[in-house]
């Protein structure tokens, strides 16, 4: 076959594929449109993609972005005021479902619409937080999955203590404006630990917070993984390494960014489950009738590169418990 005939065959095959796609979708129909709303920046470089599990879940259900579904991703770059603008944009676009990645995106989506279905991935207490009548039957236009288990806080302190048996003082980094209570409910006395609260209202406070931790002789850092902390995970990991503070937090995203230890729900697993909620809603189910799920898969992740950087040797028993070691 000469070059001209070969190119013609390739072009014909491509046209046939496009025609097959068009024939599979009835004329005049509109592809479902999903809006994914995130608080942090768009993933770049080696930074892991928080929506990877959701994308995988859609693929497993037979969805292909651009073929039988359109997914619009919007990132607020850590700016709370931007979330309202992005949520309003989804309403103008008339998306079929909004997927809200965290409490702040959920709050903005709820303010923007009470009719478009919302699938939330975040929070700990939907009833207490005001977005569900009950877990079994949330009502309204919001359903989804909780992420945070407050009762795991003491467990993280226990893991820190196992990593550093001589540990006595832990700095707790938190953004009070993003918490429903004045601070974390941590059972530190049972472990013989003193807690030093480092409250931040924005990234401009980070340097001063770590300076305080050093001045007050903190030996480790526990970061409460709210939207702000997660969004600035790489910078906070670098600060903890510079201060030689072994660090622990909730999500593997932060361990991948350089925190020493993470222990909490598997966000990729939750993303895959969120895709099943979207699928059910697109097939006609009402969000208010879909039960809210709590996490069932938890993972312990340890970053060995960080351990080496801060000169910490971790007990073999702790390493053996890890679901994943970052080397």
Give your account of this protein's structure:
There is one protein chain. With 327 residues, the protein is α/β, with parallel strands linked by helices. It has two domains: 30-148 and 266-298, Rossmann fold (3-Layer(aba) Sandwich), CATH 3.40.50.2300; 150-265 and 299-326, Rossmann fold (3-Layer(aba) Sandwich), CATH 3.40.50.2300. Helix content is 40%, strand content 18%. It has helices at residues 3-24, 52-60, 80-93, 103-112, 126-129, 153-163, 206-215, 227-231, 233-242, 252-257, 267-282, 304-310, 316-321; strands spanning 33-38, 70-75, 97-101, 118-121, 142-145, 169-174, 194-199, 220-223, 247-249, 261-265, 298-303, 324-326. The strands form two sheets. It has a seven-stranded mixed β-sheet with strand order 7-6-8-9-10-11-12, sandwiched between helices. Strands 2-1-3-4-5 form a five-stranded parallel β-sheet, with helices on both faces. α2 (52-60) packs across α11 (267-282) and α3 (80-93) crosses α4. The longest helix has 22 residues, at 3-24. 39% of the residues are buried. Residues 1-25 have low confidence and may be disordered.
